[in-house]
Amino acid sequence: MYPVQCIVVRKDLAEKLGAGVVATYLGLAAGRLFVCVGSLMGAGALIAGVVQARLGAPMFVAVVAAGAGSALIALALAWLLGNSMGYRSPLPRWALGSS
Amino acid sequence: MVVNNEALGGALGFRASQVVGNPGPALVALLVAGLLFTWFEMSWLRRAAATVKEDAGLAASPGIEPRFVIVSLPTAAGFVAGAAGALYLHSLGIIDPALYGFDNSLRIVLFALVGGPNVFFGAALAGAAPSVVPEVLRFTAAARMLLYGGVLVGVVLLRPDGLLPRGRVGLRPLLLP
């Protein structure tokens, strides 16, 4: 549906944090919808690992929590990416770059 | 510094507290995802997304809220990706940044595109390829990313709807008159 662009710089940093936020910002700057399956999967894996290891939750709960956490990240990205998706983004124009 | 953070497992990586050897949970998740996608295919949301894709401004005239459609679909995709990551963790037992890097992302997106990005069955069938194809193409280890890039360009140019175009397969013809 949209251009898919995946730019990962310092992927170890971005993905170990589990958010892919650093890489995503580069996608924002490129003015494209940024879809990085790996970053969202990494975020989900990290959330599931933390939920299980720290809270002792069963696997089903960990998977649902991972999905919910990644969905929140994707929601935030989609909201921030407004300009390139057809509506006004809350971010300043300079942060989105030319699209 | 972050990679060696003790809270994230340090240099050894973050280990899962539970490793599942059988594919049962993944198959159950695939079934649930299939049911959800089948519902989506027949829902008003699918038609709204198609309309917004054509023209967001025009889609607003009959009452479709483009922002809701545009934001909700990546959110749902994020849920599926996160759940897939969690299942991958339970299958593998460890979180390694390299496993969730650019190579894997490109491979997953590539096989989804080859299978058919608009058809759940195409993407699901193609989803098995990332675990099989590297073994078959073991002799191309050095040039594998080049090969993937060539396949991606070829699919986008020659078969933009993938190997299984929309409307050829699926439950829709069986469930709807």
What would you say this structure looks like, in words?
The complex is a heterodimer of chains A (99) and B (177). With 99 residues, chain A is mainly α. Chain A has one domain. Chain A is built from 5 helices and no strands. The radius of gyration of chain A is 15 Å and the shape is elongated. By secondary structure, chain B is mainly α. Chain B has 2 domains: 14-95; 101-177. In chain B, strands 1-2 form a two-stranded antiparallel ribbon. In chain B, helix 5 (102-115) packs parallel to helix 8. Chains A and B meet through helix 1, helix 3 and helix 4 of A and strand 1, helix 2, helix 4 and helix 5 of B.
Task: Give the tags.
heterodimer, A: 99 residues, mainly alpha, elongated, B: 177 residues, 9 helices, 2% strand, globular
Domain module tally of chain A:
1
> Which structural class matches the secondary elements of chain A?
mainly alpha
Tell me the domain tally of chain B: 2
Portion in helices of chain A: 55-70%
Separate helix tally of chain A: 5
Please indicate the percent range of residues of chain A in DSSP E strands (runs of 2 or more). under 5%
Quick take:
Chain A is mainly α and 99 residues long.
Q: Any chance you could write out the topology, listing elements then pairs?
A:
The complex is a heterodimer of chains A (99) and B (177).
Chain A (H helix, E strand, L loop, with lengths): L10 H6 L4 H9 L7 H19 L3 H22 L12 H4 L3
Helix pairs in contact in A: 3-4
Chain B lengths: L13 E2 L8 H19 L1 H11 L1 H5 L5 H27 L1 E2 L6 H14 L4 H8 L1 H8 L7 H15 L13 H4 L2
Helix pairs in contact in B: 1-4, 2-4, 5-6, 5-8
